[in-house]
Design the sequence.
């Protein structure tokens, strides 16, 4: 099939979006390619179409686990074989997924970047027939980027396994420095960038300097028709603001990474279908969501970088119709972001202490725990050892950079099981243990394929079918696991920590101080750029475009600064007209104030009187108390 036929067959589209076809053709020619496409620009099609056009498997690297799972589900629904490997999966699950890429015709293997650290993963990839390596959120590989992720640096190892396979790097935002860095770190054979302008002509950027942010937010929602997003900093705030909006008669819901996956999907669907008008969310919301008719995006708090702001604000107005990106700002935000800056960079001793307490928390002996995954209850961990939660999260990122641990935030993995015995052994077990017969038969009837692979299960559904409680179903599955009949893994929505090396003594830890200072510098530059955007009186669109290295952009004419300038210009034009008419009227006669005001047609009565006063003060006209004259 041609790429057009693939697009029609699987996506039911007859035409590619701007730049998609050029990017796909570049990849099919075997060229390393960097594609900068705006949020909602159809990045996934750029690697999915060429991968389907060639034999072999496409490896997709992405840090967004929820997005990976969505894409695997969407491809599977289209009849395309796809698997994902993320933190929290057992070694056996990983082996089965990798084998299916070698022997079972899987077309897409989605990997979180930290999985590339595993020798098992690297060894199996060596034997795969790989046709393309796609790197999503490619800015994460750059230390100058706003969201640097150290495991991305191991993508160079992936290239060494298949040196002749092209790489397609994709991102929505990157400065010139970051674009250069991405290509260098990924070992591009030649520079090759496809980039659309960052300009959004239909999007009005507005900054409101407000002490009462809640009232301003309500004013915006009342004044702009249609659906929208309100971004806030904390999970607690999502709930509070959603309640406030509902109290004011707007259908609103909250969304954050801590909400159970099925409920998150339902909330998302209600908003996409306009049953919910406003979604109040942390920055966990929006990735991979293509809702074209969002009319406003409100940021209640300052973002940490203009890259993040552009991406989140850019979720408004994808249908090309007028939309608003509103940032609510006051001087208190400066203090909050400065505080966050301070907490983002713990000292070397604080980083080492977090590592030491992690070992104590999991009761790991020195020299043990290498390659082992653990769930991490951040709240419980910090409470137990009296640690600051924000500093602890940042300490984990620096430990990740030094490759002692990998930290993955809020991975939702559903319950799953796989039979450990073959069919004949299971049949014999049922005969010898008749008390388990009904339980096993229900499992077999409910879930196919569990002898070959791990299969997702819902304990609630099993409990209904067996007319028992969820607790009894879980107990039964655990017992069958102990009896070595099956493997059972309960669902988890906890962040995960993986010890990459056996536990070290903290005296032997080497944390790179120079790297921390470098990250500090990058963070500060990005923070200062956000302050400048919020406080300067320049065209907002021009400031954003200049930041993304489009320095000669024209004024947008629709942001708050441009509209303010226009208003002042209009006022000055009206003042000139009023002045001309007053001079003309008084050049032929002396007039009373009432007669003079009536003789002028431009402006309002209030504006005419104001200009008469100005002209009197300047000595341009005079009065004898009754009449005015030149």
Sequence:
């Amino acid at each position: 099939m041609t790429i057009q036929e693939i697009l029609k067959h699987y996506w039911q589209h007859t035409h590619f979006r701007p730049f998609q076809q050029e990017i796909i053709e570049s990849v099919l020619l075997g060229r390393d390619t960097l594609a900068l496409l705006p949020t909602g620009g159809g990045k996934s099609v750029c690697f999915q179409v060429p991968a389907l056009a060639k034999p072999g498997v496409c490896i997709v690297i992405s840090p967004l686990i929820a997005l990976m799972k969505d894409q695997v589900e969407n491809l599977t629904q289209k009849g395309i074989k796809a698997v994902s490997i993320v933190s929290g999966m057992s070694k056996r699950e990983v082996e089965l997924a990798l084998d299916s890429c070698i022997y079972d015709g899987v077309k897409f293997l989605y990997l979180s970047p930290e999985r590339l650290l595993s020798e098992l993963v690297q060894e199996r990839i060596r034997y795969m027939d790989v046709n393309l390596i796609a790197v999503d959120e490619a800015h994460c590989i750059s230390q100058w980027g706003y969201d640097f992720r150290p495991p991305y640096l191991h993508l160079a190892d992936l290239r060494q396994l298949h040196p002749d396979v092209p790489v397609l790097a994709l991102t929505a935002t990157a400065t010139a420095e970051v674009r250069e860095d991405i290509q260098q770190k990924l070992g591009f054979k030649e520079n090759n960038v496809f980039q659309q302008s960052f300009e959004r002509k239909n999007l009005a950027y507005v900054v409101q300097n407000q002490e009462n942010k809640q009232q301003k937010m309500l004013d915006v929602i009342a004044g702009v028709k249609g659906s929208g997003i309100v971004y806030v900093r904390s999970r607690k705030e999502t709930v509070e603001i959603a309640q406030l909006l509902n109290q004011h008669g707007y259908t609103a819901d909250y969304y954050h990474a801590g909400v159970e996956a099925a409920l998150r999907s339902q909330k998302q669907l209600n908003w996409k279908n306009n049953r919910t008008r406003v979604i109040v969310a942390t920055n966990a919301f929006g990735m991979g969501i293509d809702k074209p008719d969002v009319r406003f995006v409100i940021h209640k708090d300052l973002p940490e970088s203009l890259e993040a702001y552009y991406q989140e604000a850019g979720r408004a107005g994808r249908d090309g119709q007028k939309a608003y990106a509103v940032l609510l700002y006051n001087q208190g935000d400066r203090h909050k972001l400065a505080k966050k800056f301070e907490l983002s960079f713990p000292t070397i001793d604080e980083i080492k202490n977090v590592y030491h307490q992690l070992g104590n928390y999991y009761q790991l002996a020195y020299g043990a725990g290498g390659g082992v995954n653990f769930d991490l209850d951040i709240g419980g961990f910090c409470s137990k050892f009296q640690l600051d939660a924000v500093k602890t999260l940042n300490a984990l990122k620096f430990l990740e950079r030094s490759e002692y641990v990998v930290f993955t935030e809020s991975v939702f993995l559903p319950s799953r099981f796989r039979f450990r015995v073959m069919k004949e052994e299971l049949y014999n077990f049922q005969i010898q243990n008749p008390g388990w017969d009904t339980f096993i038969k229900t499992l077999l009837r409910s879930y196919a394929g569990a002898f070959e692979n791990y299969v997702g299960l819902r304990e609630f559904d099993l409990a209904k079918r067996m007319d028992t409680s969820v607790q009894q179903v879980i107990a039964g599955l655990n017992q069958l696991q102990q009896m070595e009949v099956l493997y059972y893994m309960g669902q988890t929505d906890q962040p995960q920590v993986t010890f990459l090396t056996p536990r070290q003594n903290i005296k032997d830890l080497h944390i790179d101080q120079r790297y921390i200072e470098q990250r500090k510098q990058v963070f500060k530059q990005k923070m200062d750029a956000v302050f400048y955007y919020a406080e300067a009186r320049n065209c907002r669109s021009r400031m954003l475009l200049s930041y993304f290295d489009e320095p000669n952009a024209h004024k947008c004419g629709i942001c708050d600064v441009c509209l303010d300038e226009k208003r002042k210009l209009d006022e000055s034009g009206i003042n000139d007209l009023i002045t001309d008419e007053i001079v003309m009227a008084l050049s032929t006669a002396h007039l009373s104030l009432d007669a003079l005001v009536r003789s002028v047609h431009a402006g309002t009565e209030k504006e005419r009187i104001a200009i008469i006063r100005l002209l009197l003060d300047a000595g341009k006209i005079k009065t004898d108390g009754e009449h005015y004259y030149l």
In short: The chain has a mean pLDDT of 90. The radius of gyration is 31 Å. Residues 416-489 form one domain.
